[in-house]
Amino acid sequence: MAGLMKKIPFLHCSLVLMATLLAGGIASAADPMAKRVEGHWGVDKAFLMDKMKEQSGGELPPEVLPMIETMASKFVITLKDGKAEMLAEEGEGTYTISDADDAAGTCTMELTEPEGKDAKKIKVEIKGDAMTLTPEDTPGDQMRLLRLSKEEFEKLKAAAEAEPEGAEPEGEEPAEAAPAAE
Known about the structure:
The protein is of the alpha+beta class. Helices cover 35% and strands 27% of the residues. The chain has helices spanning 2-7, 9-22, 31-37, 45-56, 64-74, 150-162; strands at residues 39-43, 76-80, 83-86, 93-101, 106-112, 120-127, 130-135, 143-148. It has an 8-stranded antiparallel β-barrel with strand order 1-2-3-4-5-6-7-8, surrounded by 4 helices. Strand 7 (130-135) and strand 8 form a beta hairpin. The longest helix has 14 residues, at 9-22. The protein starts with a helix and ends in a 20-residue tail after the last helix.
């Protein structure tokens, strides 16, 4: 058999690949990218502001800036071991990684919300401590997240926990109550 493998290198490679797959190595192709996506991530505020300016066709009104700041401070996600948890939301979603290319820093992430519905496929690109997310169904809704240190995450978490339930973000007026039915 060894002589045959030397004559046909493709056979040797195929057997090694098959042994790897049978041994559970099928997921190992995504492992480096799976490790790269793990951690605490927060919104890149400058990227968000640029996207909002682009979509509005110009400068943003000053009263919008505090809302963006509040929104960005609450959009913190922790990704670890296939679980996705948002700081500002109850429950835990899940994610899977596929089509991983560690050298390019890209993969596809399928993200499922805590209720187990609304799975979304998202193209992911990681460069340094920045992760750009591009939903496959709405590529214009691109978002960039920045890796947070444990200290930054704990600070945001403490601020979110200290905020009273139902508090309106700074710069936002509470919604008016609907008129009572007669």
